[in-house]
Every structure is written in C-alpha cells, then in structure tokens.
Amino acid sequence: MKLDTKALRYLSPTDWRVLTGVETGSRNHEVVPTPLISSLSKTAAGDTQRSISLLAKANLIAKVKNTKYDGYRLTYGGLDYLALHSLQKSNVAYSVGNQIGVGKESDIFVVSDEKGQQRVLKIHRLGRVSFRKGVRNKRDYARTRQQKERGAGSWMYMSRLAAMKEHAFMSALYDAGVSVPMPLGQNRHQIVMSLVDGFPLRQVKDVPDPAGLYAELLEIVVQLAVLGLIHGDFNEFNIMIREDVDEGESVKLVPVLIDFPQMVSVDHADAEMYFDRDVQCIKRFFDRRFGFVSDEPGPFFEDVKKNVGTAEAGRLDVQVEASGFSRKMAKDLEVYMREHGVDGDAKSGGDHNTDSDSDQSGDDEDDVQEEVEDHASLMRNGVGGLIRQPQARTHSSP
Ligand code: ADP
Ligand code: MG
C-alpha cells in the first residue's frame, strides 16, 4: 500500500483532533456520524465540517452511506498518519523514504530520524489479504463473523496487536542479546527498528561455509527455545544476513532474525510442531539452496525443553506477558491470524518459499507467489540503494 505523506505537513491541530475523533469513534461504530466526530474531537460543527472535507480529500477518512445516516470511517491511510504523527512527535521517525518490502500483512519503509540516520518502519496491515481481488474463500466468511463479534474496527485492533506483539518480543530478544534489530519505537500498528545492513537469506546464492551458517541458525532456534520462545516463521525470508568485515579483511556472515508477530511460547499446545517446522525450514533450505545436509539429526524439542529458563535472561515468554502484551491479547491475535490464514512467509504456499523455480498451483498460492516475487524484485533492484544486490558481493570463498 502506498504511503503518501504529502498531507502530513499541512494538517492543522484541529484536523489532527478531528482525525483522532474519527479513530476513536471507529472503535465501536462502523460509520461514525458527523455530530459524534464533532463531540469526540471537541470541535465546533463548522470547523469539524471543514476538517472532514480536507481529511476525506486526502483519503484519511472515507464517507460511508448508511441506511440510517451518513458518516465517516477511518482508512488505513488515516491510521498511518496518526501513528506517523506520534512517532514524529516522539522523535522516532522524522521523514519517510522508500518502500523496501511488501509483505502480505505488512509494508516496510526506510525512514530517517532528525539526524538523517536510517531506520526501518514496519506497518502491520492485518485484514488486507481478505480485501484483495480474487481471494475469495472461507477467510471472507471468517472475517464477516469476526466483524460481527468485534466491530468494524477489528482490522485496526488486530494490526495494532501485531505491532505491539512484535515490538514486545523484539525488545525482550534484543535485551537478552539475541541477534535481532534494535527496537526503536511503536505506535498503533507501526514499529520502528534499526536497519539491518544486509539482505534476506533467500537472496544469498552461495556461502563460503554452509555447515557453519547452518549450525549457527539452528543454534538460534535452540537459544530461543531456552529463552521460552519459538519463532514460528523461521525461514530464509525472515533471516537477514549481514556481512561484517574484520581487521584481517575476512568477511563474516552474521544472521539477524526479524518478523515476530507469530512467535509462541514453548508452553503453547502446538509448541513441538512449531519448533520442528522451524528446524525443518532451515534443513530444507540448506539442502535445496546449498546442497548441504547435516549428518546430525535434530535438534529435538524434548531435549531442548529440559533447558528452558536456564539462560541468564530467564524466560522471555513470561517477561513479555508481564510487560503488557497480555495472554488475552496473544489469544485474540492468534485466533484472528488462524481464521484469516495469516501464517507467515513459510506456510502460505506450501513450500513455495524455498526456491523461486518451485511449481505452483491454485489461486491463492499464485497470489502469494506473485507478491513474493514482487518483493524479491524490489529487493534485488535495491530500492533506495540500501540493500545491496547479492550478486555484487561475493559469498564464495575468500
Ligand atoms: P512480513 O511480516 O511482511 O514478512 P518482515 O518483517 O519479514 O515482514 O519484513 C519484510 C522484508 O522487509 C524482509 O524480508 C526484509 O527484506 C525487509 N526488512 C524488514 N525488517 C528489516 C530491517 N530491520 N532491516 C532491513 N530490512 C528489513
Ligand atoms: Mg517476513
């Protein structure tokens, strides 16, 4: 989704209040009537009307005709503005640059702070897939039922939950010393983190030491489990590879883990399945891409489970729950993701993710594949010149 930030600069304090009023009203009204917007934003009727016209023109709110009355609803654009405005006020993000990623449920942009230092803005967009043309299946029914249960603001609430969860887990992991981006801020459905100067493993054609990297990645899976967590989408799209050059000029590949909205606790009922799936993803990728198959079986969940909580950092699943991302929120998000087929990069199209030449069939998979290719080509073209093309750097033996 486009992020047109033109209007960000010219909205007046009254416009922001009215926009916030529409947001507040949208939480429990499918259509927010104008008088309610006026009272929620504590703005006189005439001023409210003027702001509404401007906000509607900028597509931050949309007019909805109801059988009983006309009114407005917040759009994703409006939610984007509200979140960005807050992030700007708290000096987390100053200006928005190029889009570097298009996922099924998120958009990724490069932003910079006041000093021009580059960061990454991830905007969660749960519910977007169901609106897409050509994807009509049981998810739509689920969404209708869900909307009845939770009100029209459900996409907003769920996207915010995803951002809260991702930020909470990234913070806990970062503090525990796991290789993840540095979390820098979160507001509504957006999070800001440090930019990883690298590219997804998916684009790495060749590595000098597949066995070494393989061992390192499975070590991360085990490290997470000891900390009480399973990534749940541990695959070549969500592992960034950074190249660190040391004094001796030799290049070291450093994996950095991203994308945490589907993380689960080792106490989850399906923990073992998620753990095994993460492990298998890596095994399959290393086999197909590098022709590397380890002699050693495992790691196995039952072995790792014995060591849960033994690291100095303790149990992050417990810490995150205490930090404000409650069990109830986790459950809400999990149910929504399951009902809407939000199952990460790895699962959606069977094993489409492993190689670009793998065969696809079925509408859904084609759609997913198309987006994956979009994303891959975006990254290959190095939008914004930030992500280097893997071919330009040698991963063959030094
Ligand atoms: P999604 O949930 O849509 O899969 P991800 O968090 O996996 O979103 O991000 C999508 C893509 O954006 C990644 O595969 C990566 O290429 C890029 N990206 C995400 N976070 C960062 C970051 N911190 N630094 C650099 N690139 C990133
Ligand atoms: Mg991802």
Throw out a few tags for this protein.
Transferase(Phosphotransferase), domain 1, 14 helices, binds magnesium ion, disordered C terminus, alpha+beta, Arc Repressor Mutant, subunit A, 398 residues, five-stranded antiparallel beta sheet, binds adenosine-5'-diphosphate, three-stranded antiparallel beta sheet
Uncertain ranges: 130-149, 348-398
User: What is the terminal separation in angstroms?
Assistant: 41 Å
Shape: elongated
* Number of distinct beta strands: 13
What is the CATH class designation of the domain at 197-326 and 341-392? Mainly Alpha
Specify the structural class.
alpha+beta
Q: What strand line-up does the widest sheet have?
A: 4-5-6-8-7
Per CATH, what is the topology of the domain at 197-326 and 341-392?
Transferase(Phosphotransferase), domain 1
Could you characterize the architecture of this molecule?
It is a single chain. With 398 residues, the chain is α+β, with helices and mostly antiparallel strands. It is built from 14 helices and 13 strands. Among the domains are: 1-82, Arc Repressor Mutant, subunit A (Orthogonal Bundle); 197-326 and 341-392, Transferase(Phosphotransferase) domain 1 (Transferase(Phosphotransferase), domain 1), CATH 1.10.510. The chain has helices at 13-26, 34-40, 45-57, 76-89, 128-131, 138-150, 154-175, 210-226, 271-290, 301-305, 316-322, 327-339, 344-347, 363-380; strands at 32-33, 61-65, 70-74, 95-102, 106-112, 118-124, 183-187, 190-194, 198-200, 229-230, 239-245, 251-257, 264-265. The chain has a 5-stranded antiparallel beta sheet, with helices on both faces. Strands 1-3-2 form a 3-stranded antiparallel beta sheet. A 3-stranded antiparallel beta sheet has the order 9-11-12. The structure holds adenosine-5'-diphosphate and magnesium ion (MG). Adenosine-5'-diphosphate binds next to strand 4, strand 5 and strand 6.
